[in-house]
Amino acid sequence: MTLLTAIGLSDIAFFIFALLIIGCGAVVAFSRNIVHSGFALMGTFAGVAGLYALAFAQFIAAVQIMVYVGGVLVVILFAIMMTREIGRAESSNPAVGRFPAVLLGVVIGAVLVFIALQFPWTINPSTDFDPTVNDLGDALLSRFLIPFEVLSLLLLAVLVGAVMLVKKEIKALPPEEKSS
Amino acid sequence: MKELFFELSQSWQLEPLEMTGAIALWLVVVSAIVLSFVATFAGVTSWVERRVAGRMMSRIGPNRVGPQGFLQWMADGLKCFLKEDVIPNEVDKPLFRFAPYLVFTGTFAAFAALPFGYGIVAADLNIGIFYVTAITALVVIGILMAGWSSNNKWSLLGGVRSAAQIVSYEIPSGLAILSVVVLAGTLNLQAIIAGQGGFPWDWYIFNNPFTLMAFFIFFASILAEGNRTPFDLPEAESELVAGYLTEYSGMRFVFFFFGEWANLWVMSALITTLFLGGWQIPGVADLAGVVAGVQGAAKTLWILLSVVVFFAKTLVLVFVVIWIRWTLPRLRVDQLMVMCWKYFVPFGFLCMMGSALFVLIAQSPLGETVHLVVRLALTGLGGLVLLLFVRRTILNVRELQDPFYFKVLE
Questions:
Q1: CATH assignment of A1-86, given 1.10.10.10, 3.30.559.30, 3.40.190.10, 1.20.120.1200?
Q2: Cβ separation of B137 and A59 shorter than 8 Å?
Q3: Between chain A's N and C termini, which has fewer beta carbons within 10 Å?
Q4: Contact A69/B160, CB-based, under 8 Å?
C-alpha cells in the first residue's frame, strides 16, 4: 500500500471522493424532487466508503456500502416510492421557513466546527496496510461482547415489533353473527 | 497484479512523478484487461445461452453468422450500437440515462476481487468475499432507478420486485458464505482457495454435511440475486412484459444484459472459489510452494494450469446455470419469499452453526480421522448421485430415439 501514499494519487482520490460527497449531499438537500434526493444519497454513501478505504479501513468501507447502500437506502427508496404525490415538492418537501432553517444550519455548523477544532487529529505515520477484520472480530467477541449482544437484542426487538405492526388481525366473528 | 507491477517498475528506475503516472496507467491497463475479458465473456455467453436454449427447446438457435453462428454476438452488439436510443417523453431523464451504467458498474466492480488463477487477481483484497457481496448493492439501486424512472407500471413493479428479492436473498447467501469463512478463517478469496485441495474430498463442499447444505443454499440464493430463472420474476414476461427493462432500447438495453451475463461469471466463479476448490490442481498439494520453487517458463506454465482448472470449473457451472434457466418454471412471488425466509434463512443459520461446530470436532483428538471419514463419505455420496444421474440420462436418451436430438451442432 506504499503504492498510494508515496505519490499523491491518494490525494487526488481524496478530493474526488470529497467532491462526490459534497456534490451529492447538495443534490439531496436542494433537489425539488425527493426521489432524486434519495438516489443522490447513494453518491454520498459511496463517497464516504471511498474515504474509509483511503484510510485503510477496508472492512468498514465494505460495511458502509453493504449497510447503507444495500440496506438503508433501499428501504428509504421503498418508502418514498410507496408514498403518494411525491412528484409535488410542496407535499414531499414541506418548507418550514427561512428563520428555523438558518438557525438549525448555524447550530449544526457550529457544533461540527467545534468538534473539528477540538479533536486531536493525528496523522497515521504507518503506510503499511494493516487488516482490521481480525482485530474487529476479537474486540466484538471479547471486550465489547455485552454491548454487541445488547445491540442484537435490540435488533430482534425491532424485528418482532415490525412483524407485530404488519400482522393481520384475524378476529373471530361473534357467535350470533356467525349463525345468521 | 500489484506484485507484478512492483517487479516491473523496479527495472524501469522511475522518478517519483513518473511513478504516479505509471501507477495511474497501470490501473487503467488492469481494468481494461478485466473489462475486455468481461465483454468477451458476456458476448460469447449470450450466443452459448441461445444455442443451449434452442437445443433444450428442440429448435436450432442462431447458426447463421459465422461457424455455428458463433459471431452472432458481435453482430448483435454492432446492431445495438447503431440502434436509436429511444428515451420516452415522460421518463425521469437523468435517472433513466444513468441506471444502466449503475447496474453494470455494480457487476463489473465485483471482478476487481475475483480470482482467475493462482496469483491472478486484479486486487487481492483482504476482505474479498465481503467486498463482492457488498458492491453488488449498486445493482439493486440501479434496478430500482430503472424501474422508477421509466414511468411505467410494469417497470416499477419489476424494479421493486427485484430489489425486494435481492435484499432478501442476500441473507441466506451471506450465511452460506459464512459457513465457509468459518472453515477457512479468512475473507480473502485467494486464501479461501488455498485452504482447500485439488481433490473433491479436499473441497469445502464435501468438508462436512453442513457445507454441503450451504452449497445448495448458496447456489439457489445467488441465482435469485442474479435474477436468473427460476427466480427471474422481475422480468417475468408473462406478467410484466420485461420488467424494469421495458422502456429501454439500444445500447442502454445491452448494458443491462451485459451486466446479467457478466454476473453469470461472478456467481459461477464465487461458487468455484468457495466450494469447489478454485484453482487447486488435483495432485498438487502445495501450489504456492511449487510456483515459488521454479522460475521462468515453468512458473508461467504452472500458473496457466491453475487458470485452466479454474476456468474449467467455472464454465461447467455457467453451463449448469444456463441449463437450470431453460429447464425449470418460474416461481410465484409468495413462493419465492416463503422459500427465502422460512427455509433458506433458518437452514442457513444451521449451516453456519454446524460448520463452526465441525471446526471444533476436527480439532479434537480423533477429530482428524472422523473428519477424513466424513469427507470421504460425502464425496462418495456426491459421486454416487452424479453416477445415477448420468445413468438415468443415458437411459432417457436411448429411449428417446430422436435423430434430431443427437445432432448437437447444426
A1: 1.20.120.1200
A2: no
A3: C
A4: no
